[in-house]
Amino acid sequence: MSRVEDLRFGVVTFPGSNCEQDAVHALRHLGYQADYIWHQDTDLNGFDAVVLPGGFSYGDYLRCGAVARFSPVMAEVVGYAESGRPVIGICNGFQVLTEAHLLPGALIRNKGLKFLCQNVHLRVEESVCKWVDLPAGTVLDIPISHNEGNYICDEETLAGLQENAQIVLRYCEPDGSRLSGGSAPNGALDDIAGICNQRGNVFGLMPHPERVTDGVSGSKAGSVVFTAIATYAREVAGR
Amino acid sequence: MTEETRIPAAIADSIETLDPELAAQVAVQLGLTLDEYQGVIAVQGRVPSLTELYIYSLMWSEHCSYKHSKKQLRNFSSEGEHVLQGPGENAGVISVGDGWAVAFKMESHNHPSAIEPYEGAATGVGGIIRDIFTMGARPIACMDSLRFGTLDKPRQRYLFDGAVAGIGSYGNCLGVPTVGGEVYFEEAYEGNCLINAFAIGLMREEHLTRAVGSGPGNLVVLIGSSTGRDGIGGASVLASQEFDEAAENKRPAVQVGDPFEEKLLIEVCLELLKRGLFVALGDLGAAGLTSSASEMASRGGVGIDIDVRKVPQRETAMQPFEIMVSESQERMLAVVKPKDFAAVEEVCKRWSVACTAIGTITDTGRFVVRDSSLPVGSDIVADMPAEMLATSAPEYDPPMARPAYLDELQQADLSWLTKEEKSIETLNSELLTLLGSANICSREWIWRQYDHQVQANTVLLPGADAAVLRISDTGRGSATNRGIAMSTDCNGRYCYLDPYVGAQIALAESARNLACVGAAPAAITDCLNFGNPEKPEVFYTFHKAIMGLSDACRYYGIPVISGNVSFYNESFGNAIYPTPVVGMVGIVDDISQIVTGAFKQQGDTIILVGQTEDELGGSEYLKVLYGQVTGRPPLLDLELEGDVQRVVREAVRDGLLQSAHDCSEGGIAITLAECCIAGGIGALVDLDDELPAVASLFSETQSRIVVSVSEEQVSELITRLQQAQVPYSVIGEIGGESLSIEGKLEVPIAQIACTFSQSLEKMVKQR
Known about the structure:
A: 239 residues, 9-stranded mixed beta sheet, B: alpha+beta, Phosphoribosyl-aminoimidazole Synthetase, Chain A, domain 2, 7-stranded mixed beta sheet, disordered N terminus
């Protein structure tokens, strides 16, 4: 296996993104190369994986991610994703991915109508996701920080997500169990915290793994989300 | 017309001309006194134009000129070897070592928030953050010090809920973490809530920028939002008068925030500053373009010539004075060399931020405002001496009188409080009542609504004694292992009962909070919230609080590098408690050594550093259990306080402690309960201090910190305490599932945790 520093991540900056620096910092801390991609840029050559970071793209004044989806870079990200290359959307990035129809469903306001910034427990599910390579049932503690993280989709879509093993992370209790009334603090359908596309290369999640990567607040639990993708990214890049 | 009232030809012909009698009337309507109006005539040498009158009324308003407080504020010292910028700029700046510097300031947005809490609080955050990046620093954290009336009143729940949502909405969108703060609920704040926002930014020392205009011929450039009629007269109408029945009508004077625009402004300004494309930078805050431009000219000893018609406007038919005094948010004023303007425009365009040259720096020393839609020759609507405008505001020395209530309350006999023998059951229930009371219960409901981790440098989550941010240019450079600690404190009730001591305790508690995380105080900012300074009793408390704070700062050698005064916090004649809020910043040398207040490990020894006295005056216990605010607040011995802090700070730095948490409202019983709740483990304690149980548990004696120590470090810590001659007692050990205080109380941790964590949300949601 080649070295991590050979792998180069591109982190998109939309006007109003505010976690792009955290993502670059986390990736560099893990030894990867990481650089910013301006939302007007249209060239993704040279990037082995693309990150759509958290924040409030275009102020999220219309609907979260609805305007960012029309940024020039997004047409390229769609093509990049469809060719099987790895794309991850964190928080606002997840919202952008759903608006761009790279992932199904939508993210609406939290059930309590309040912004929620807190640590959550996440259960790793059996999934086709290339970004997570942990045994099903593993519990990760990663913070969330959002106002619109309440995942919804229609019944048919949900059945498809379940059937195709596209549900990657679910909110859960500390021991991995789920409450009958739901364990998602934001009210997400089926406790969904993160999903992927059928191919498993496009991953969207509300929690912020980049915030718990270098141990600044005592935890490095988020690192796993960025390390598993290395092998796949090389394969698909033909390296 | 006499020689003194001569008007230049340009103004005489314009629509702006006022006849002397009308001018005097307008001046009074705008909030100037007749004496002040005479002062305007003296500075101008003639009857002012309409625009000039508006400008003077704002620049000489309490909010902009500090006319009642200026003399008192001179008691503060901003001296310190690491101080790079003291008061007088948009924010103070200190060096924090290795070429890093931090800019910080606290500011009030009380009056707007009392009318419209969401926008008022949001724009308060927006304003203080602009003050930070104006200095060249990237904003890295915010804190808020809030005061409301009690939550049994629907209006107070509305204000509290709205203000918290407003703070969150703005800071969250900007990506600046809100890492802590404080809130109290007291009847005294019912008519005037307090919203004090405290922000800090990090920069390399070489990027420090000041709002000093220079270089005649340079362009004056407005960057950011367009200008509308929002916030017109905010400084004079809202911030410089008491509230009455007409408060609702003042809603149009509250600005509306656009955090997205501000986020873009941060990126644009920091990029342009780093590239050296700004000669000067200032933000538009109170009194808008007027104060920003005139202060820039005054500081630089230059003149400024502005054409109001070049200012991008979001409304039609705006008058020159409206454009000059509008408080539309998210606007910055820069001075740019003509050769650099194209580069500035290019960066702004990339971020879709508007950027317009609206005037030039001149060598005349005059602050000239033109309206180019008027005929040439009569297009000057204001022509004033820039220096005088910013510096010649009247300065008052208001009369003071010691309020009669002070003697009465300070002499109150509280011996009845501790006479009654109370059963363990009673004390258990009193502890639970206090833990669930509004001023003591967990603030998690608040900080869960704030993004407190964005930028990935938050070392301690909110709820700790002090916030700690790692020093790191995240995403641009590597992280360090050093940190910046910040804390904000003020117990208004203590200040009401003794403004001198109360203000000193605000400083001492802030520093004690820092000591608990191993940080030494580096400098403070303050936000002095008081009632109407024209009332001698109010001004007396202001004077005493300043003396208390400045004396204590001098004693510890802590410079005051920025601050803000908010007067007229009165409604229907009732003033708030004197509330001099302290915002303190300190340095942590190694963030890996930080401890929290949480008890860590079964069997660790619990030590009380300091000594409890019978001091229940002004206490939370007296208020919550008996509904009384009376007595003397706790004494403060500055020397002992300093010693306690030093020993604990050094013990944290040397890795001797497992936990440290200061004793404040509610006394040691509350401190111990919080340590247990945070650690999820019980404690077996024997206070053995020969005080009556109520005093032993709930007294608010200062200079006390509860620490826990592993067995092998106990003797080392005790040696240090003895060497420092700091009183201490070994009071127990960690373990079990209850907080058990020998002969006094015993409660299960699960029960107190539940009461502590759920109370605030229940109070907000009551119907």
